[in-house]
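Structure in, sequence out. Go:
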């Protein structure tokens, strides 16, 4: 259970130093978000930035507390931070980076854009990632209120990435085990372009 029902409630009770918001609007019709970034779901900020690169819009809500960052988790269907809503509403498609538990390296894909989910899944698998659908319906990203489905097309893609994979992909110490974060980014972009969609 989340401590706060929505962003307004969180903002009323948490000190401003507890979190940071980074929102960058670019010309692309795609945005990448990490609504539970920083210390809330470790590694998701790094993955969102990597996928966004220099072309895509992106948004990060990052927990910065010394401890207790789980308190800053607002479930995706209730996530209503104003900058996030504004950025998402102006984009056609939203990619949402989330973290889930797991010692195995797995990417669970969900969201209402079924064709794009299938295409990205195939591209990730081709590059050596283990891909699946999370058993928990609440982590499948199909709720219409989910922040990933609030773009102009009302359907996006949700990534639930296990802790083991997030930590390895976001690692900056030079480990180069395959598949790498570059493989991850290229698979997502490849899955998008395979559908003939403009990136």
């Amino acid at each position: 259970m989340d401590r706060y029902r929505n962003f307004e409630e969180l903002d009323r009770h948490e000190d401003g130093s507890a979190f940071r918001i980074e929102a960058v609007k670019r010309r692309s019709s795609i945005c990448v978000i990490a609504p539970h970034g920083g210390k809330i779901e470790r590694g998701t900020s790094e993955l969102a930035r990597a996928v966004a690169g220099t072309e895509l819009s992106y948004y990060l809500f990052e927990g910065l507390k010394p401890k207790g960052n789980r308190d800053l988790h607002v479930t995706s269907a209730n996530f209503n931070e104003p900058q996030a809503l504004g950025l998402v509403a102006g984009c056609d498609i939203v990619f949402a980076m989330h973290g889930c538990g797991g010692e195995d390296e797995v990417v669970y894909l969900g969201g209402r854009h079924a064709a794009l989910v299938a295409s990205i899944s195939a591209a990730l698998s081709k590059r050596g990632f283990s891909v699946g659908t999370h058993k928990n319906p609440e982590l499948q990203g199909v709720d219409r209120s989910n922040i990933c489905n609030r773009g102009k097309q009302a359907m996006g893609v949700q990534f639930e990435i296990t802790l083991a994979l997030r930590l390895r992909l976001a690692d900056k110490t030079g480990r180069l085990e395959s598949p790498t974060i570059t493989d991850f980014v290229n698979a997502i972009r490849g899955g998008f372009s395979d559908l003939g969609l403009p990136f």
